[in-house]
Amino acid sequence: ADEIQKLRDRKRAKEHEIKDSTLPEIAIVGRSNVGKSTMLNTLTESPNTARVSSKPGLTRQLNFYRCGDKFVVVDMPGYGFAFAKEEDKTAWKELIEDYLGTRKSLKRIYVMIDARHGLKVADKEFLTMMGATSSKKFQVVLTKCDLVSPPDLARTYMVVQEELKKSFRNAMTDRILMVSSYTGAGMNTLRKDMLFECGQ
Ligand code: GDP
Fold first, then answer.
1. Which range (108-117, 151-160, 172-181, 189-198) has the least confidence?
2. Closest ligand 1 atom, CA of 147?
3. Which CATH superfamily includes the segment(s) 2-197?
4. Complex-level ipTM
5. How many angstroms does the Cα of residue 185 sit away from the middle of ligand 1?
6. Protein residue closest via CA to atom 19 of ligand 1
């Protein structure tokens, strides 16, 4: 409960402070519109603070949120590059090389997937690109679970799990997290999972 209170106390840390930070980091990625900003707001129970930048250059878009003195959540830009511009892919490749693949304090990457759709082409493209450069493990989180019936959710869970096992060696496939920012379902588990990954 103490940790959760600390999460609520999170402050957006300035980038220069973060550069030398020894706090463990958690990166959050996902397709645009997957519900990432809403999830970040719900996670920290502080509305209207997650989306801090409008549309700057892709590589400048890392936003760092200090969660008490336990860890830092790093909000990555939304991707969506099936059939998209080549320069977006190049920028993302750099972001993976410069941050996701190499950051020592990065403990885990959380990949948000819409529970209504499962892995889409853009997700697979992104995960393939990430896997080519980074050996960091990632945890999948199904979002917007309130929009899916329990049987459909169970089906999507299994399909996604199989696809991850088959094609993405860096995926953590024992368990896929399921959340709804609207109902709050799964959010405590997600918080605890993050704390655990950060050795707390
Ligand atoms: P982002 O682009 O990944 O940051 O996505 P947003 O957080 O902006 O959410 C995209 C849309 O999905 C918005 O209209 C949100 O209100 C909606 N949304 C986000 N989370 C949930 C959720 O848990 N349940 C439902 N039903 N809608 C959600």
1. 189-198
2. 26
3. P-loop containing nucleotide triphosphate hydrolases (3.40.50.300)
4. 0.98
5. 14
6. 35
Residues in the chain: 200
**Contact (CB, 8 A) for 59 and 98:** yes
What is the C-alpha separation between 181 and 187, in angstroms, rounded?
Answer: 7
CA dihedral 164→117→133→100, nearest 10 degrees, is -110
- pLDDT average, residue stretch 102-130: 95
Q: pLDDT at position 49, please?
A: 37
Which class for 147: exposed (0-12), middle (13-18), buried (19 or more C-beta within 10 A)?
middle
**Alpha carbon distance 7, 142 (integer Å):** 21
Query: How far apart (Å, rounded) are the C-alpha atoms in residues 189 and 200?
Result: 14
**Which protein residues are within 6 Å of ligand 1, measured from CB?**
30, 32-38, 78, 143-144, 146-147, 180-182
**Which of the listed residues 33, 42, 61, 147 should we mutate to test ligand 1's pocket, taking the one with most ligand atoms within 8 A of CB?**
33
CA distance 129 to 171: 13
- Nearest atom in ligand 1 to the alpha carbon of residue 32 is 2
**What CA–CA distance (Å, rounded) separates 99 from 95?**
6
Backbone angles phi, psi at 134, to 5 degrees: -115, 140
- What is the model's pLDDT at position 199? 86
